[in-house]
Amino acid sequence: MSTQGEARALIAAVRDRRGELAEGGFAADRDNADPTANLALLAGLGVARLAVPAAYGGLWDGTERGGWGAVIRAVREISAGDGPTGQNWLTTALVARELFGPDSGLPEPTRAELARRLLDDGLRLVSSAAETGVSGRTTARPVAGGVVLSGTKSFNTNSGGLGVAAVRCVLAGEPPTPHQVLVDLTHPQVRLHDDWDTMGQRGTRSQTVTYQDVFVPDGRHQPLAGPFSPVFLGAAMLLHAGLLQGIGEGALDALVQHTRTMERGSLPQFATPAEDPLILRRLGALSSRLAASRALLHTAADQLETGRDGEDDGTVDCFRAKVAAVDAALEAAAGIHEITGARSTSNAFRYDRYWRNARTFASHDPTDAKNVYIGGYELNGHLPALSSIIRL
Predict the structure, then answer these.
(1) Which of 205, 239, 242, 352 could form an SS bridge with 76, CB 3.0 to 4.6 Å?
(2) Omega before 175 cis (within 30°)?
(3) Spatial separation of the C-alpha atoms in residues 335 and 361, rounded to whole Å
(4) DSSP bridge partners of 166
């Protein structure tokens, strides 16, 4: 089987397990817990191969543009099962692409070890970068044989899996320089605050983490090459779009499954949902809306792989795909209870988690701003620099 064929087979395998992912997501949302079983299921399927270079046993060709279409499609399928699981896996994939990418300065033994742990042990990766709401900057201090890391990061998605955090910091010196260190979250001098308690995406466990003078040996830290490339930023936007698209498709799945169990239509004159034109119209409209946003997502993902540097045509479709996915996901998630009625609001179903998850993640960055940039592109033919308008 070709590499592309293997990637398609992995994505199909995830699609077949969406029901199990939904069950795991239900429990994690109820308990405000990490969806550990879901991530173990994905590890067992070998989905990590999509984010690991072929040189280490993965399916990615190792180039900057290669393989994004498969990763984005996988995120959509995973998130259709459970949004927080999708965000956790997305984080691992995005950090892996950074660590194994062309600009990475990690030595070969470290890269080989990370690949082995990703493929064999189900290693989960954390992007430990945000410092919103904390005092001071996280700093690495050079010492013999490595660096000592000190500081606090405020948003650490996927940290409930106690994997490896890729910590963005400054390396002490004159002048201080951007740096990245790899820290196992099981290290005794790492403090996990367990303070993640949000309305939605609860299973991401995006808690605060404090690094209390953690020694990091040489070979597990590196200078940061500079700002993310437009390709990487465009891919990140499409991964976010894929997450929201998946949540919307999961909401439609839940809506259809529940509607099939209903014994009456929305009004007395309709004996069953199958005879109720009001229900059928809403289902059809949601299905079409999601199909359209899915098609745009896939087109933009494929253009990202085949595009050329400096072209804005593909980039603007990344913006359009994110806008379309946000709107479609929120509409689908909000429609569940209106279509299925008051009984579906029971916590026995927890259908509200689809809207809570979609609304929470869609709040990451404003859709209105993207529409402004798209409108500017339509009038002026260009976009501002992605590094000035995309937040990871």
Answers:
(1) 242
(2) yes
(3) 18
(4) 127, 182
Nearest alpha-carbon partner for 115 in 193, 52, 205, 178: 52
Write out pLDDT tens, residues 59-79.
999 999 999 999 999 999 999
Tell me the two tokens of residue 161.
């899996």
Residue identified by tokens 């937040």 is: 391
Contacts of 286 (CB under 8 A, 6+ apart): 252, 255, 331, 332, 335
3-state secondary structure of 317: helix
Task: Report residue 308's pLDDT band, with 50, 70 and 90 as the boundaries.
Answer: confident
What would the pLDDT profile of 147-171 be if each residue is shown by its tens digit? Answer: 999 999 999 999 999 999 999 999 9
Q: Strand (E) positions, 146-251?
A: 146-156, 164-171, 177-184, 190-192, 207-217, 221-223
Q: Coil, helix or strand for 126?
A: strand
Structural domains of the chain in order of their starting residue, each with its CATH number: 3-123 (1.10.540), 139-223 (2.40.110.10), 230-388 (1.20.140.10)
Chain position carrying tokens 């945000």: 130
Is the CA virtual torsion 280, 281, 285, 291 positive or negative? positive
Question: Is 114:53 a contact under the CB 8 Å cutoff?
Answer: no
What is the value of pTM for the model shown? 0.95
Q: For residue 120, is pLDDT > 90? A: yes
For residues 186 and 89, what is the distance between their CA atoms, to the nearest angstrom? Answer: 19
Average pLDDT, the chain: 94
